[in-house]
């Protein structure tokens, strides 16, 4: 039986995109770091590029553009060439293929989720989806229930529901989507609620209440007569024995101070233009 280290990749590898780069890898291993070693690695990467493209093609129907898939696979190839050690006696494809496929799968796992979920939930999603497909085939197309998926996949029903919730997290619908095909259906945008102005009013009132209570008695009395009893400034001045101008200055000064105190409160919502 021929030594694995001397066996030609073309004879051991079933595809026609396997160049003979054994000598190049031995030279790379012997060279010190520098421009010559980098250039030789680049030559090897270019020689094996068709293999990376072929592996990327396996994932072309999973929602990612083929150009992006090729770039990710080529990055995996670069890593494989940089890490490959010919002295271990392993053919380069046996080392490179798992590295490239791992890079592509990592890209799908970490980069393409619209709603990013923990890795454990991603694994639950994969197991739930596989169990669902297998059960659909055995049940004659009937959609399996959560307890049936749980029994088939060795999961709890809570884990199944968690995995099912993640099934729709990989992609997202546009808010302009119109579910259904009836004339009465509406865009998803039309189902969204708006900001309730009453919430801000409640917050502002609660923030203002202790500030009003802390005002001097005279200022609090003037504000009460003006804004709660709706008395004119002239009438307030007559009742307190001061001029209308003095009442106006007191109201303006007190309201400005209250406004500054309320806006300094971090609980109060800020409105942007």
From TrEMBL:
UniProt xrefs under Pfam families: Sigma70_r2, Sigma70_r4
Key word Transcription regulation present: yes
Keywords of the record: DNA-binding, Sigma factor, Transcription, Transcription regulation
InterPro entries, sorted: RNA_pol_sigma-70_dom, RNA_pol_sigma-B/F/G, RNA_pol_sigma70, RNA_pol_sigma70_r2, RNA_pol_sigma70_r4, RNA_pol_sigma_r2, RNA_pol_sigma_r3/r4-like, WH-like_DNA-bd_sf
Domain RNA polymerase sigma-70 region: 48-112, 211-258
PANTHER family: RNA POLYMERASE SIGMA-E FACTOR, SIGMA FACTOR F FLAGELLAR
Protein name per the record: SigB/SigF/SigG family RNA polymerase sigma factor
Source organism per UniProt: Streptomyces ureilyticus
């Amino acid at each position: 039986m021929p030594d694995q280290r001397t066996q030609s990749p073309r004879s051991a590898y079933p595809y026609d995109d396997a160049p003979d780069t054994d000598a190049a890898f031995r030279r790379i291993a012997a060279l010190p770091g520098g421009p010559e070693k980098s250039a030789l690695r680049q030559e090897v990467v270019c020689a094996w590029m068709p293999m990376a493209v072929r592996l990327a093609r396996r994932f072309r129907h999973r929602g990612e553009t083929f150009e992006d898939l090729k770039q990710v696979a080529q990055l995996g190839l670069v890593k494989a060439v940089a890490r490959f050690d010919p002295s271990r006696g392993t053919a380069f494809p046996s080392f490179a293929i798992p590295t490239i496929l791992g890079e592509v799968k990592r890209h799908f796992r970490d980069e393409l989720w619209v709603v990013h979920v923990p890795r454990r939930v991603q694994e639950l999603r994969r197991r739930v989806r596989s169990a669902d497909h297998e059960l659909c085939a055995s049940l004659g197309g009937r959609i399996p229930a959560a307890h049936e998926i749980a029994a088939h996949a060795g999961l709890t029903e809570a884990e199944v529901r968690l995995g099912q919730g993640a099934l729709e997290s990989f992609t997202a619908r546009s808010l302009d989507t119109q579910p259904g095909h009836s004339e009465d259906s509406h865009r998803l945008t039309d189902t969204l609620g708006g900001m309730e102005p009453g919430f801000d009013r409640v917050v502002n009132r609660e923030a203002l209440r202790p500030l009003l209570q802390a005002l001097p008695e005279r200022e609090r009395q003037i504000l009460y007569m003006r804004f709660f009893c709706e008395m004119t400034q002239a009438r307030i001045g007559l009742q307190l024995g001061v001029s209308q101008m003095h009442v106006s200055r007191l109201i303006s000064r007190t309201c400005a101070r209250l406004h500054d105190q309320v806006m300094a409160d971090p609980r109060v919502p800020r409105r942007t233009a």
